Amino acid sequence: MTTHHPPSGPLTGPDPTPAATAAAGRVAVVTGGSRGIGRAVCLRLAQDGLAVVVNYARDAAAAEETVAAVDAAGGRALCVRADVADEDAVAVLFDRAEREFGGVDVVVNCAGRLALSPIADLDLAVLDAVHRTNIRGAFVVAQQAARRLRAGGAFVGFSTSVVGTRFPAYGAYAASKAAVESLTLILARELRGRDITVNTVAPGPTATDLFLEGKTPEQITRLALAPPLERLGTPEDIAQVVAFLTSPAGHWVNGQVLRANGGMV
Q: Which domains are assigned to the chain?
């Protein structure tokens, strides 16, 4: 199922900002773009004038809402269903971006799966599902990005600050995201000479459904107080980081993992 909204001008109106002007004609593919951080990234990139392809795995209604929000603000968007771990489906996703909007300049892989359990108790079928999305999926999306991104482009992957904090019960998730971090500099070096940046954003506790699910109010409060800024991050906080990394202003940052977590160690 796909939805296409034709171009209707930049989000900033008749007097676009320099960022929106620079982004004119640029196209972003955002996986996991229907909800949470992915949705905030879609809206933020669209605000800068990029056409956005909103990828989703299951929730078509949420993806349609993201497209509608971009469209209502004067942007350009379409949504395409694809399991990021399915290489054929992801190839079709990129085909649609190229056919509808003319190419791909930015790829942001927000799709992810979280499972919390002590290592001793984790069902290995759950481990396989987490790693299928978070490792295989990240690799498949990065592979298509490496093949499709135009010069001047940017790839942004997603990790987690738990790779550093090493909280109990996050073993499967943190292990999968550590793999993403390992790929970052390798891919940046493999794209030498093509004027494409590769970075990974590693959020701390961020107020998304994925983060809040299964946590008690006490746990949420404790995590919110952990950073020196003493609050949870918001999807918009993380989207601002992505917008910088994918903009001309952030193009000298390459091969890095940015821990966007308010100062957590």
A: 23-258 (3.40.50.720)
